[in-house]
Amino acid sequence: MILAIDQGTTGTTCLVFDEQAQLSGRAYREFEQYFPKPGWVEHDAATIWDVTRAVALEALEDARTQPGELQAIGITNQRETVCVWDPQTGEPLYHALVWQDRRTAARCDALREAGHEPLVRTCSGLVLDPYFSATKIEWLLENVEGLRERARSGGAVFGTIDSWLVFKLTGEHRTDVTNASRTMLYDIVRGDWDDELLALLGDVPRKSLPEVLPSIGTFGTVRDGALGDGYDGVPISGIAGDQQAALYGQGCLDPGLGKNTYGTGSFVLLNQGDKAPTAPPGLLSTIAWGIGERTVYALEAAIFVTGAAVQWLRDGLGIIEQASDTEQLAASLDSNDGVYFVPALTGLGSPHWDPYARGTIVGLTRGSTRAHVARATLEAIAFQTVDAVQAMERASGQPLAELRADGGATVNAWLMQFQADVLGVPIAVAEIPETTALGAALLAGVGVGAWTQEDVACRDGERARYEPEIAADERDALIGDWRRAVQRARGWARG
Questions:
Q1: Which of 116, 333, 357, 407 is positioned for an S-S bond with 348, CB 3.0–4.6 A?
Q2: Partners of 250 in the β-ladder
Q3: In 3-state terms, what secondary structure has residue 149?
Q4: Alpha-carbon distance 161 to 165, whole Å?
Q5: Which DSSP helix (H) or strand (E) runs through 172?
Q6: What is the CATH number of domain 2-244?
C-alpha cells in the first residue's frame, strides 16, 4: 500500500493505493480558515498537523491496511504557504501565512519600483507578487518579536507545508525542488537557495531553510509513534507541490502535455522538458519535478480563486448548502442574462497579476436570482481558465489540442461542458478527481520501486470527455463580456 497525503488549502485528503495504483481507501476533513484583516489569510499549522495525522489514519483504516503493508508515503501540498516553528520543540511560532495572503502587496510594489523584478524573474522564474513565500518570510522576520534572532541562532526554521509535515513525521527539515521553486528564494537553474535573493528579500538566514532534495527519493522515515502503531520506519519517498503532483498524476511526462487542476484555485501547467523556459509575461517558469540528477520544468498559469468562490457562496453568502447545488442552479437558466462574477477575492493571478483587484459582480437586475450568481461563479472558473490557456498559447506559439482536467470541480458536468464550449477544445477529465494525491502516490511508488516512470506514463485514466458545442461567435461574445467585467475589478483596492 502507498499512502498519499494531499494537504490542501481548505482541508486534507488522504488516499491509499494498492500495488496496481487502484484506490483502496480515503478520508477527508476541512479545517478552520483565519482572516484577521482584509486580504490576510492564515492557518494554524498545529491544526493542520492534527487533521493530517487523523485523516491519514482514517484512510489507512478505510483501506484495511495491516501493519507492515504500508510501503511508502507521498506528500503533496498547498504551495507557497509558509510555516515557522521551533525545531527543538516542534511548536509553531506564528500562524502559517497562506498563499492567498496579500499583506505584502505594497512591499512587492516597492521591490518592483526599485528595479528588482528582473533578478527575481531570472533566478526563480516567478513574478514579484505576495502569492509567493519570500515576502511572507520577510514579514514574519520583521513582525514577530525576536524571530530574526531565533532564526539566526537556529531556534526558528521556515518551510512550506510539505516540510512542516516531513518534520512532524520524521524530525527532518527537508523539502523538494518543486516546493523550493515556489518560494522566490530558489535558483531553479542552479538548483540552490540564491544568496542574492536571500539578502534582498528579508536577509533570510540560509540555515533556517530546509534541505532541498529531488521529488523522488527518501526524505526521512516515520519516527516512533508519529503516525500511530505499526507505521514507524515507513519512508516518505515522494513529494511535490500540488500542481506539479497533478501534472505527474495526469501522466504529462513529455514536453507539450498540459493539465488544469480545479481546486481552491486553478492551475494550468505545461511540461517544457529539461530546459528551464524563459518566463513570458503573465506566466511563471517553475520546476515540474526532480528525479535523480534530472530536473523537468513547466510553464504555469496560476488562478487564485475558483473552487474557493463556490465555498464563498456556501459559507459567506449562504445561498447554497453544498457545492453540488451550483450545477442544478446553473442549468436552470438558459443563459447568464448578462451577469458576470469576477472572483478576485484575493486579487488576480495569471495573466493579470493584480493584487489590488477585488471581487466584482456586474450585470445584476431586479430579475437576477441566486441561480444567476451561482452560474456566474461557475462561468468565472471557465473564463479564467480561458485567459490562462490563451496566454500560454501566445507564449508557446502552439494552440492547445485538448486540456486534461482534474480536481474536485470536474464532477460538475455543467462546468466541464461550459469549459469545453468557451475554450473551444475537448476537455479530458481524469478518472480520479484527486489527481494531486494520485501524483504523490505515484512519485512515492516510483521512489520505492513499486512502479517505473514508464508505468506512470502509460496509465489510462480518462473518465469523461467533453467536446465544444457552441459556435465561435457565441464564444467570442461571452469572452468579450467577461473581459469587460475583469476591467471593472482591476485595481479596485488602490482607490
A1: 357
A2: none
A3: helix
A4: 6
A5: none
A6: 3.30.420.40
